[in-house]
Amino acid sequence: MDVLIRAVRGVSLVCGIVAAALTATAVVVVCQMVFVRYVLNQNTIWQTDFVTFSLVGATFVGAPYVLMTRGHVAVDVVPLMLGERGRFRLAVVATVLSLAFAAVATWLTGLFWLEAWENRWVSESMWRVRLWIPYAAMPIGLGVLTLQYLVDLYELVTGRARPFGAEGPLEGGI
């Protein structure tokens, strides 16, 4: 099981790197677009689509890394008011619900991607990008997010991870 956990974390790390690269590339393309429009006084064709698809893709693909590093915004007032058992139960329920949402979203976005692939959808801009390419970020990112939730749930249930970032040894039995 440790090999699987390390593999999922490795894939989540790669997702984070890809998301950072997509974001950085989008910034460079925005600068290029401004230069072409306002300095060279020319039209831009592909830049707006590229930036939009890159940032949306970075959001989906980067989600597993954010979960793995606990980089998301967390409101932990209720968990901190609960005892150890209540905190554990709340963490399990929250993780299971999040896992279910991610799994369903993976399935649905996979169907959406497949439809774009089979019907050869292209964007409406002059660039006419094949939409299955940017749409692939949704099922890929959500699929890895689902795996990361499975790892988090396993670590929580086995006591390898503490609920809501609590520190110290587990008190009594869970």
Automatic annotation (TrEMBL):
Membrane topology: Multi-pass membrane protein
Record's GO cellular component terms: plasma membrane
InterPro entries reported for this sequence: DctQ, TRAP_DctQ
Keyword field contains Membrane: yes
Keywords of the record: Cell inner membrane, Cell membrane, Membrane, Transmembrane, Transmembrane helix, Transport
Boundaries of every Tripartite ATP-independent periplasmic transporters DctQ component domain copy: 27-158
Keyword 4Fe-4S: no
Main location: membrane
Gene Ontology biological-process entries: C4-dicarboxylate transport
Pfam families named in the record: DctQ
Location(s), subcellular: Cell inner membrane
Transmembrane regions: 12-38, 50-67, 88-112, 132-151
Molecular function (Gene Ontology), one example: transmembrane transporter activity
Domain of life of the native organism: Bacteria
Protein family: Belongs to the TRAP transporter small permease family.
The protein's assembly and partners: The complex comprises the extracytoplasmic solute receptor protein and the two transmembrane proteins.
Known role: Part of the tripartite ATP-independent periplasmic (TRAP) transport system.
The name this protein goes by in its record: TRAP transporter small permease protein
